[in-house]
């Protein structure tokens, strides 16, 4: 085992043909199941919790969500660099599932706790706990979830298979919180939503901790080149000329504006436009059907390619959204349209996570520096948080401008604004993302050449 010129250590083992066991891929799925169980609860219900339970104004809640994005801009690259510096007997990314499981659960619990505060103190408490849960600690969990994929195997198809397992786990986590969160709040609170949210988040937190512990135990990091700690400035160098990474980062940030809008506004649409907030559980509970689309991804990528698969997902998602806008109040047709939208969104949201592993390879090929932690932290956690933040802030500003007042009968103008934001705004976002992703085709064609040259480079380093 010899040190390479790039500061890495070659293991002498080519893991390009490593086939991951079903259990290991299942363990990988537990990471996103736990992450979504808590984070989707935040992205779906925190705005509603702030306005209708904690008593903040829509403008105040939107301000918190916007300010938090500046902290995300710092925490994502910092966490990425921390992961790149981590070297333990358990690996580089895997230890964080053990170390951050309990802090993640506790921080999310505090974010949905409504102490008896008033005025500025209430705003400061909400802001601090939101940044802690949805920013600092969640980034620490999300970063290794994506960063570990390039270390599990270099086999491209196995990466897509593992990523499909991960997205199925994420869909199940989303299904649990989307379907059962509000009913659990009503059941556990017995009319007191403050108490209901606290006990619901306690239950979800315990479940998330168990899942992350199982994920830690069930996975193994295998790397061809295990890097020594690299300075933060060298992590930045891995982005130089990494055009496919730029494309994914920009498109994923924009995509998550739509994803967060659909999740966050559904409760308002159900409560005020349809007259029954519990219908949110029906809308969001149907998200589990996205598993069907997620399972199909490896088959679609074999027929076409990864870039086209994502564009197909965006097109299907846009069709479903537009259909909802044309079917009126026909509940059956609305549900059918919503399911079509779910199928498309499930494909579109899954692809960048798997494709980021390829940009890690591109960065190493281009610069000689392999920085999976930094590249995937910015490419996943940062994108999700920034996009989700704007996906909550923009709707809050639209609703505020339209005269929204929590727990009151809304004007026709306000209801129209909610309808536009929930139905048509995501379609605009999907179209923009699809156009950006068209730039990725040329780089996907280069992947076989890049993998071959990296394999030759690693083999030479092993023999030196």
Automatic annotation (TrEMBL):
User: Which key words are in the record?
Assistant: Membrane, Sugar transport, Transmembrane, Transmembrane helix, Transport
Task: Write out the transmembrane intervals.
Answer: 45-68, 96-117, 123-149, 170-189, 195-216, 236-258, 278-300, 307-327, 333-353, 374-394, 414-441
**InterPro entries the UniProt entry points to:** MFS_2, MFS_trans_sf, Na/Gal_symport
PANTHER family per record: MAJOR FACILITATOR SUPERFAMILY (MFS) PROFILE DOMAIN-CONTAINING PROTEIN, MAJOR FACILITATOR SUPERFAMILY DOMAIN-CONTAINING PROTEIN
Designated name of the protein: Sodium:solute symporter
* Organism (species): Lentilactobacillus fungorum
